[in-house]
């Protein structure tokens, strides 16, 4: 999405104007579907895939902050929010959730695909809810830290971090002390048998997820105790938005064997991306309006060089390198790992050189569309197999619809009159 000039100078308060919520929300959602589906494609996955999705949503967020004007008066319109979104989504990839898909389907495996037992599907939906809760929730935590109602000093930051640590330790301790609350058939001793590899995987996954959920709860409790209503709202909406997207979207996983031979996992991922994108749009619309009474912020060196600088350069280079890796895996072409690493370093260095030579602004105009373009190119490169099956054709068609629809919404947005909204 090109970084167009604001309708008003950045240092002049804007009058009350109509918000352009729906085209912006559609772009967040359509591109979110693309981001999250590519996130799990060959070459990506885990935190690497999280970097792709986080970079994409961060660029849209900053692009809309500029497009709608008064970015320096928007509480979440500065470069540190770019880092918060990018790192928050990437950190979510440190946990896995694949083991719970069979639970949604009503099957519990001792050692996949063997040893099947019947299980209540709600257990799978509940665990996926927890996965989404911490994934979006911790992203919301990092975002909320960028615009506190009352800034914290050193002692306050120690208390904030301690709250998250206490929550993480407490959640982990509960899972370890009471495993039967979270692990089906635990009292039967299934998890003590090393032959039951899928059981052991489930146990490890829950112990991995618990500290993330606990940290989310601890950070949320801290902001509630200090009565930062905006921070509580941002953290809560981001957590619940992703949690519901993860959980409700998992219904696609029940279509295997009863519907067409399509990649229903990808449909689930697309639903997460749509729900996550709409969550970002809601938070942007509700909490990132320019504050007419606030003085315009100055761009700091840490914003320009680190948050909206080095992290974006490295993330863009990583996306391109992973796209090349995904393409090589799909087509059976061997590329030395060092080639991608060197190419990534050179791309990041080139972006940094050009960025820092650009005059003045926190981020040059060209970097946002370039980063989004890199995601699209890497996504299609990693998704194109040598032979297109029906499932591949359907996915590629949907990807094209997401990208083309986003461009169409952006053209619509360009013609929305008076798109600004102030508080």
Quick overview of this protein structure:
Helices cover 65% and strands 2% of the residues. With 423 residues, the chain is mostly helical. A hairpin with a 2-residue loop joins strand 1 and strand 2.
What does this structure look like?
By secondary structure, the protein is an all-alpha fold. It has one domain (21-149, 228-414). The protein contains 13 helices and 2 strands. The longest helix is centred in the last third of the chain and has 31 residues, at 301-331. The two termini are 25 Å apart. 48% of the residues are buried.
How many structural domains? 1
The mean pLDDT is 88
Record field, number of beta strands: 2
Proportion of residues in β-strands: under 5%
Oligomer: single chain
What strand order characterises the main sheet? Answer: 1-2
Task: Describe the sheet with the most strands.
Answer: 2 strands, antiparallel
Distance between the termini: 25 Å
Structural class: mainly alpha
Helix content: 55-70%
* Computed CA radius of gyration, to the nearest angstrom: 22 Å
Globally, the shape reads globular
The helix/strand order is HHHHEEHHHHHHHHH
Count of separate DSSP helical elements: 13
Topology:
Blueprint (H helix, E strand, L loop, with lengths): L20 H19 L6 H22 L11 H14 L8 H4 L2 E5 L2 E5 L2 H25 L8 H24 L19 H29 L3 H21 L14 H24 L13 H31 L5 H21 L9 H17 L6 H25 L9
Antiparallel strand pairs: 1-2
Helix pairs in contact: 1-2, 1-9, 1-12, 1-13, 2-3, 2-10, 2-12, 3-5, 3-10, 5-7, 5-8, 6-7, 7-8, 8-9, 10-11, 10-12
